[in-house]
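W.,

You were right to be curious about this one. When I first looked at the sequence I had no strong expectations either way, so I just let the prediction run and decided to look at it fresh. Below is the sequence, 322 residues in total, followed by the output.
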Amino acid sequence: MLVIVAPGQGAQSPGFLSPWLELDGVADRLQRWSEPAGLDLVHAGTEASAEEIKDTAVAQPLLVAAGLVTARALFPDEDAARKLTGAVAGHSVGEITAAALAGVFGAHEALTFVRERGRAMAEAATVTETGMLAVLGGDPEVVAAKLAEHGLTAANNNGGGQIVAAGTLVQLEALRADPPAGAKLIALKVAGAFHTEHMAPGVERLAALAPSLAVADPQVSYVSNKDGGVVDSGAEVLARLVSQVSNPVRWDLCMEALGRLGATAVIELSPAGTLTGLLKRNLKGVATLALKTPADLDKARALIEEHGGQDRQDPQDQEDQA
């Protein structure tokens, strides 16, 4: 079964969309999408500096637009794409990309939603100086206890011993000075403590926007960051996208779900690489491909030809056979 995944904030790098603009129609599509996105997507993806695209209000629309435009390059026919794809998932803001790929809403609605999400989270991040640190390795119970000791939240559980701690800069500095035994700490390129209580104002803003968006039920299996569950209702997908702003990302549970559904190949949309690395470590035997540039399209198409169109497995059936 073929799975398409979309990365979250921090995956972006200066100029990562430049090779894609060499394909016919990409620049025109990005220019059309710039209005709902609220920024010049071509500039952001080709000429903007690392500091510019670190800005949450820029990074989030840019990432969703990048995922959608590279998906369109891979699958020119959206209906055909959904027949070939067994499941979709996204990490944090990548969930919006995944929702659009599943047919929950169109590109215009996705970019309108992510524009407001990015702005709301950027504004929420200015209330208190906050940030995020990746905690790699260490005993999970020791890591959890150390985060609790310093008042930090495990905002992301990415599986394979990778936890993302989020909180105030003071709390994060305290963790740096007193890290969990055996763990390595890495600062993330984000501007706030996403997926924590610090983002509550963003939830309120998106909840006010949500009723204006037209949604449909997913046409492929949509795996949610909340709990790794497969969500069949478009209204529920949208509700989860709103609340997920201040809830932890359980990517570990998403990967487990993809395994239960019978994933045999996963393609990560641009800017790809982060999720592919996690999937390789956690879903042994599943083929993975990071769609970084157009040079990767032929390999991706070969994976689609081999794995596309296979039905997902029913987790209940698997339990019955156990």
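Here's what jumped out at me. The chain has a mean pLDDT of 94. And, maybe more interesting for your project: The domain at 130-187 is CATH 3.30.70.250 (Alpha-Beta Plaits).

Coffee later to discuss?

I.
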